[in-house]
Specification:
By secondary structure, this protein is mainly alpha-helical. The protein has 2 domains: about 50 residues, no CATH class; about 110 residues, no CATH class.
Length: about 210
């Protein structure tokens, strides 16, 4: 009987073989590296391979406006400021859950090889190039003035909680989103993971060979 470790390794290597003829890109390179590392592990270390980044339990929070508003006002560094501003301009009219979900997308992008590796770089990717910005507020031509101090304080706390390790369990790994008011063509290429408030959330399809 095949062991769990052997089966898991086979899945990784089958997917690797199916993609071998494709042009190498950063995502493929990361996948290949992960598959090779998995193949080198014995069964007792498989679990450690998947959980090595989970060195601490997720930060315990409540995703309710009342709970968030009761927490002390926070400040932070440049990366925190970028995330707080993005949440304010992109999602301040959303529910608290919706604001957490948008933060998940941004942090998921930071962790992805397909996107820049800091919060500020992710948020400002494409800024200044027509139709190329990733977050509308960075290229809509409107000044980025913060008038709603209470809303900004709230999203600032959410930004801090997410950066400090709050669980990302709302969007199932989404790296894209758009409002229900639009129907962009790019959305047809991705798998919708959930809908929260006025936003649909997506991630790339993952295809594994069935041969």
């Amino acid at each position: 009987m095949r062991t769990l470790a052997t089966m898991m390794i086979a899945v990784f290597l089958t997917a690797q073989t199916a993609l071998a003829g494709a042009t190498q890109d950063p995502v493929q390179a990361a996948f290949d590296s992960e598959a090779r590392e998995l193949a080198s592990l014995d069964g007792s270390k498989i679990r450690d391979f998947f959980t090595r980044q989970k060195t601490t339990k997720p930060l315990q929070i409540e995703r309710s406006r009342a709970w968030i508003d009761a927490q002390p006002v926070v400040t932070g560094d440049e990366q925190w400021a970028c995330l707080a501003q993005a949440l304010y301009f992109e999602a301040r009219g959303e529910s608290v859950r919706g604001q957490f979900a948008v933060a998940e997308v941004i942090l998921n992008r930071v962790d992805s090889a397909k996107f820049p590796d800091t919060i500020c770089k992710v948020i400002h990717q494409g800024t200044g190039r027509k139709f190329a910005c990733q977050f509308t507020f960075t290229c809509d031509g409107h000044p980025e003035n913060i008038h709603e101090k209470g809303a900004y304080a709230r999203v600032g706390k959410i930004a801090k909680f997410m950066m400090d390790g709050a669980a990302r369990d709302l969007t199932d790994g989404a790296t894209y989103y758009h409002t229900k008011a639009v129907n962009p063509r790019w959305a047809r290429k991705f798998a919708r993971t959930t809908t929260i408030g006025v936003h649909h959330f997506y991630r790339p399809h993952v295809r594994v060979s069935q041969n």
